[in-house]
Amino acid sequence: MLDSFDQKKAQILAEIATTNEANPDLSPKGTIDELCLPIMNSINSHSDMITTSSCSGRVSVFLEGDKKGNSKIGAKGDGGHWLFVTHDKRQVSRWWKNIDFECQIEKSNFKPSRFVLFKFEPLILHVKCRDLTTAQKLYQTAMSCGFRESGIGVNNIVGIRISIKLDIPIGYLNEEGKCVLLVDENYLEFIDNQAINRFNENESKLNLLHRKISDMMFATTEMKIEETKNERRDRKRREGLAKQEALMKEKGKKLEMGQNEEPEDG
Amino acid sequence: MLDSFDQKKAQILAEIATTNEANPDLSPKGTIDELCLPIMNSINSHSDMITTSSCSGRVSVFLEGDKKGNSKIGAKGDGGHWLFVTHDKRQVSRWWKNIDFECQIEKSNFKPSRFVLFKFEPLILHVKCRDLTTAQKLYQTAMSCGFRESGIGVNNIVGIRISIKLDIPIGYLNEEGKCVLLVDENYLEFIDNQAINRFNENESKLNLLHRKISDMMFATTEMKIEETKNERRDRKRREGLAKQEALMKEKGKKLEMGQNEEPEDG
């Protein structure tokens, strides 16, 4: 019998294996960000860890939700919507060219209450660990690479976070329901470049984290496990069977389910 | 004998009790933010928790450090410096009036590499708990109030974090070493107001957190402890003695120490 961690891990691996553009997961983008795949593969090759959500980093521009509803300040929430979103730094430059902004600021008594925000959000990874010892080791590895907003939640899930952000209000919603820009094109170009710098910094932090996880998490595990050849063969057979079974279930389930839930990240 | 948690708690309470403007702590500001005091007092009245650092939220404007040194992107770091910082929303409006900016953008081939950032950073609290059960309960309480970037670190320290931020590049350092603004005064006024909105939102989140901690952390503890009158009297006596002893030590130590270290928050 597989324990509950191994069952959960097999189920998630099966979901990852069947996710592609034709068969999307429940995130807004629908697929795993390419930049995350190498580090996810490394983490998931460790017998005591499994990634549960990931976003490699992104630029988004959106109109805030209606605060009379339940929308939070600076969040898309109810009634807000994306004007632009990308996980690819090559797509950032001049993103505004296809967007229909009003550029004339009105001199009226109208007090805007909903704003247009330009955000850069860095890598975020959630990793479920088999036990607290593994979770603490992963947490400390992340902290040592500068992911200073990391922390362990419930069920030994480690949130890996860093604060290389941009959070810039650039406009507002006017009385006619049009988005009005408060900055000029020079400034938009300037923050595009700032976002690209942060994409680069984020990528180098991601690579550092990947190296450190490979060094620190695997070195000690191998010593700790001391599995015999036979134990390893049996474990691999059990894991393979569980993965196959979960894969079959997953394929059935996806056909039954809708795609309209939004997880926290991605 | 007090256990190590009680000793640490007595020492921190003694530090808090002796900190004031004439006798500052090691944070840049030197004193505890007023808005934090009520929630800190509540937390610290619980026998299994002690606050280890706090910042009630602030606006800061600074020149980034020199990236050739070890400075991080978007951080003050080596060679950077504050142009303005406040924890008081009433001080935000028109902060730039006393600062000597160049407002004329030069048309040259100079590529700036150091930027001026305007930031709003919300409440952050670190709380050391006696055990993992208490840490997990506090973590879940914080998450339930929207402090979604919270997490448990090592030694049962809970980091309580929320992402109501602003992170806005507004200028750069030119060849002559002067700060040049990239936005106009209208935009500066606009982001002042955005920061004040976030201060208000932050304060209401802080109050919500305070209420929930009072409700959730204390209700169950009282049931759990079931301390007799005599046990309580003995504990209070022990705690009082330890606090007094730590207070005396702390007063001696402060006279010996410099004030030039910067902790992470505050």
What are the segments of chain A in which pLDDT stays under 50 over at least 5 consecutive residues?
221-225, 254-266
Supply the helix-strand structural class of chain A: alpha+beta
Distance between the termini of chain A: 33 Å
What number is the mean pLDDT of chain A? 86
CATH fold naming of chain A: SSo0622-like fold
Tally of contiguous helical segments of chain A: 5
Order of strands across the main sheet of chain A: 3-2-4-8-9
Most extensive interface = A-B, 38 and 38 residues
User: What's the CATH C level of chain A?
Assistant: Alpha Beta
Oligomeric category: homodimer
Order of helices and strands of chain A: HHEEEEEHEEEEHH
Pfam families (chains A, B): TYW3
GO biological process, one term (chains A, B): tRNA methylation
EC number (chains A, B): 2.1.1.282
Organism (chains A, B): Komagataella phaffii (strain GS115 / ATCC 20864) (Yeast)
Describe the structure.
Chains A, B: It holds the Pfam family TYW3. Chains A, B: Residues 226-256 have a biased composition (Basic and acidic residues). Chains A, B: This is tRNA wybutosine-synthesizing protein 3. Two copies of one chain form a homodimer. Chain A has 266 residues and is α+β, with helices and mostly antiparallel strands. Chain A has a single domain (32-226), classed as tRNA wybutosine-synthesizing-like (SSo0622-like fold, 2-Layer Sandwich), CATH 3.30.1960.10. In chain A, 39% of the residues lie in helices and 19% in strands. The first copy, chain A, has five helices and nine strands. The first copy, chain A, has helices at 4-18, 37-44, 132-144, 185-225, 229-256, and strands at 49-55, 58-63, 81-86, 115-121, 124-129, 151-152, 157-161, 166-173, 179-181. A five-stranded antiparallel sheet of chain A has the order 3-2-4-8-9, covered by helices on one side. A four-stranded antiparallel sheet of chain A has the order 1-5-7-6. In chain A, helix 1 packs across helix 5 and helix 3 (132-144) packs across helix 4 (185-225). The longest helix of chain A is centred in the last third of the chain and has 41 residues, at 185-225. Chain A is elongated. Residues 221-225 and 254-266 of chain A have low confidence and may be disordered. Chains A and B meet through helix 3, strand 6, strand 7, strand 8 and helix 4 of A and helix 3, strand 6, strand 7, strand 8 and helix 4 of B.
